[in-house]
Design a protein that fits this description.
Blueprint: E1 2-6, H1 10-21, E2 25-29, H2 40-46, E3 52-55, H3 61-73, E4 79-82, H4 88-100, E5 104-111, H5 116-119, E6 122-126, H6 129-134, H7 136-142, E7 148-152, H8 156-183, H9 191-197, H10 207-217, H11 235-245, H12 251-263, H13 269-282
Parallel strand pairs: 1-2, 1-3, 3-4, 4-5, 6-7
Antiparallel strand pairs: 5-6
Length: about 300
């Protein structure tokens, strides 16, 4: 099957390679790297109708601009796939805009990261049944056995991926807190060894634990080369916003997101308020500004 891949970053480039290995014809466009096409218009001209354009570009303005250009370039019967981490509301809107041009739109949540080239990608597709079915050969090549599904109408693919990433936040935070406690214990524990044995037979075994074991292997389990600063892609925020809209309690996911916020603070004003209040009502000592207890 032929496909035009737009965006050849860490995900798009590896996905293109996996498709080629499976025998598919992949044309590509990315202004930042070598591609088979120098523009979206040229990419269109290199594809046979009905065309499939697969966007793997950052969510937000880049996706919006790329989609807007594509729907004007595409012909009726073509399909635009958004495989990035777009907000599901945007995907619902884009499906309607594409339909007005006679173009099909499919939103696909993609999970697998940099390991997907060899292990495959989990794919969560949203859209009308017919265009999703036409992409079955592409999905089968990208995913491991049993690793893809048509989860619902337009927007559903990115909705499921959003919740997937919210769950991921919670799982990662649980591992983070547990291993911090192990690291601060009275025992000289080998964190690399512990993460390693937990991969086999333990009820907390997971792929995330395998990745943590690999990270610990690089420096003996202390992560000294890694800064204690954690970014977020935005999907945890969307998950929490949707939970609020649906009156669904998500305390673990919320706490995990707030822990990431806390990791980015050089100093905490909230902690200053707490210290000042303790001093006011109980006369408890207050450390001078910018001085941490125990700091040398």
């Amino acid at each position: 099957m032929q496909l035009g891949m737009i965006g050849l970053g860490r995900m798009g480039g590896s996905m293109s390679e996996r498709l080629r290995r499976a025998g598919h014809d992949v044309e590509s466009y990315d202004p930042g790297v070598d591609s088979t096409a120098a523009s979206l218009a040229e990419l269109r001209d290199r594809l046979l109708a009905p065309r499939v354009f697969w966007m793997m570009v950052p969510a937000g303005a880049v996706t919006e601009q790329t989609f807007a250009e594509l729907v004007t370039l595409a012909s009726p019967g073509d399909t635009v796939v958004d495989g990035g981490n777009s907000n599901f509301h945007d995907s619902q809107r884009r499906a309607l805009e594409a339909a007005a041009h006679g173009v099909d739109f499919v939103d696909v949540g993609v999970s697998g990261g940099i390991w997907g080239l060899e292990a495959g990608y989990c794919l969560m597709a949203g859209g009308e049944r017919e265009p999703v079915a036409r992409l079955a050969a592409i999905f089968a090549a990208l995913a491991p056995p049993g690793g893809y599904a048509h989860v619902g109408p337009a927007g559903a693919g990115h909705y499921v991926k959003m919740v997937h990433n919210g769950i991921e936040y919670g799982l990662m935070q649980a591992y983070a807190e547990g291993f911090e406690l192990l690291a601060r214990s009275e025992f000289e524990l080998d964190l690399h060894e512990i993460a390693g044995i937990w991969r086999y037979g333990s009820v907390v075994r997971s792929w995330l634990l395998e990745l943590l074991t690999a990270a610990f292997a690089q420096d003996g389990g202390r992560l000294e080369a890694v800064a204690d600063y954690v970014e977020d892609s935005g999907e945890g925020r969307w998950t929490i916003a949707e939970a609020i809209a649906r009156d669904v309690p998500v305390p673990v996911i919320s706490a995990a997101l707030f822990a990431r916020f806390a990791s980015r603070q050089d100093e905490s004003f909230a902690a200053k308020v707490n210290a000042a209040l303790r001093n006011q009502f109980g006369g408890h000592a207050v450390s001078p500004a910018r001085e941490r207890p125990g700091a040398s």
